[in-house]
Amino acid sequence: MDRKQFLTTGVLTTGLYIAAPHVIFSKEQEKPQLDKKIVQNFVGAGHKSLETVKELLAEHPTLINAAHDWRGGDFETCLGAASHVGYKELAQYLLDHGAQANVFTAALFGKIDIIKSILEFSPRTLHAKGPHGYTLLHHAERGGEESKEITEYLKSLGLKKTKIDLF
């Protein structure tokens, strides 16, 4: 292969590598993003309205794990909203419809084995910030009697704050 053939082949090959992802993923790019206002309304309803959540989810099933950006690194899902306000009925509805469970929801529902396993796997999760900076302790306290064991366990590990500043 002479120099000219080498350069021509190199340019064509490089062009294929650059163009290939666009060709391969172009179908993915055709999918529209969820409307940010609808996501905000869905997440907002997660704080207070099971009926609104049901209506929006029926109309837009892909909202189930959508997160709203309240800014400053404060992302919140509908399940996150229901969890930090202690709205167990709404949280359970979302879980039953495929929402991604997390450590904060486990704390709300008093799932001590899950909490202990996660903290063993990742000890710094003890100080994790949930939506709006609410801690595991906050979520456990919102769980009431069902989460009393977790509340005591977290306190025994030294967790005192129920909210941590996001900034």
Structure description:
There is one protein chain. α2 packs parallel to α4, α4 packs antiparallel against α5 (88-96) and α8 (136-142) runs antiparallel to α9 (148-156). The chain is mainly alpha-helical and 167 residues long. The protein has helices spanning 3-29, 36-45, 50-59, 78-85, 88-96, 103-108, 112-121, 136-142, 148-156; strands at 67-69, 75-77. 29% of the residues are buried. The N and C termini lie far apart (60 Å). It folds into two domains: 1-31; 36-156, Ankyrin repeat-containing domain (Serine Threonine Protein Phosphatase 5, Tetratricopeptide repeat), CATH 1.25.40.20. Helix content is 57%, strand content 4%. The chain has a two-stranded antiparallel sheet. The chain is globular and about 65 Å long. It has nine helices and two strands.
- The total count of helices amounts to 9
User: Which strand order does the major sheet show?
Assistant: 1-2
In total, the number of domains comes to 2
> How can the largest sheet be summarized?
2 strands, antiparallel
Helix proportion of residues, in percent?
55-70%
Tell me the CATH architecture of the largest domain: Alpha Horseshoe
Q: Give the integer mean of the pLDDT values.
A: 88
- Give me the Rg, rounded: 22 Å
What proportion strand?
under 5%
Distance between the termini: 60 Å
List keywords for this structure.
Serine Threonine Protein Phosphatase 5, Tetratricopeptide repeat
Helices and strands in order:
Elements: H1 3-29, H2 36-45, H3 50-59, E1 67-69, E2 75-77, H4 78-85, H5 88-96, H6 103-108, H7 112-121, H8 136-142, H9 148-156
Antiparallel strand pairs: 1-2
Helix pairs in contact: 2-3, 2-4, 4-5, 8-9
